[in-house]
Design brief:
Elements lengths: L1 H37 L3 H7 E9 L2 E4 H10 L2 E16 L3 E14 L2 E16 L2 E11 L9
Parallel strand pairs: 1-6
Antiparallel strand pairs: 1-2, 3-4, 4-5, 5-6
Length: 148
């Protein structure tokens, strides 16, 4: 009985550590994504974005190819995403949702603009690599908090 309790306890600790490891991977990947967007590094983004990924912006929704074209041409240049808060939820070992509250400085239609957003990112692990399935911008006030 004592060994069973110890085994269950160690299994719970291991599962918790594993989930925390995934959460950290996703946080790092999301931060890299913002930098790749700022750098207009469409090769790295093309590898990250799932072929069926969707992107929801203030001005519309579109799929991977259009998002990459927008970034490459600079019609939206994600100059800087200042991340204020991040929360990650995992679902098993292959699915994660990340929410981050950001102040985004972007160059859009010839003007620099600054907006507050909560950005929702859905990730799925496929063949050992994390793929971004969805990225949705939600306009919020700068006092908005993400519940952890």
């Amino acid at each position: 009985m004592k060994y069973l309790v110890i085994t269950i306890f160690l299994s719970l600790i291991s599962a918790s550590s594993f989930a925390q490891g995934i959460e950290e991977q996703i946080k790092v990947l999301s931060q890299q994504k913002w930098q790749w967007m700022a750098n207009k590094d469409v090769d790295k983004l093309a590898s990250l974005f799932h072929d069926k990924s969707k992107f929801v912006h203030m001005s519309g929704s579109w799929k991977k190819d259009r998002e990459l074209e927008i970034i490459k041409t600079g019609s939206i240049w994600y100059k800087n995403a200042e991340v204020h808060d991040v929360a990650v939820e995992t679902f098993g070992d292959d699915t994660a949702i990340l929410w981050n509250r950001i102040t985004l400085t972007a160059h859009v239609r010839g003007n620099d603009v600054k907006n507050e957003f909560t950005v929702t990112e859905f990730y799925k692990k496929e063949a050992g690599d994390w793929k971004l399935l969805d990225l949705t911008f939600s306009s919020v006030r700068d006092t908005h908090k993400i519940e952890h």
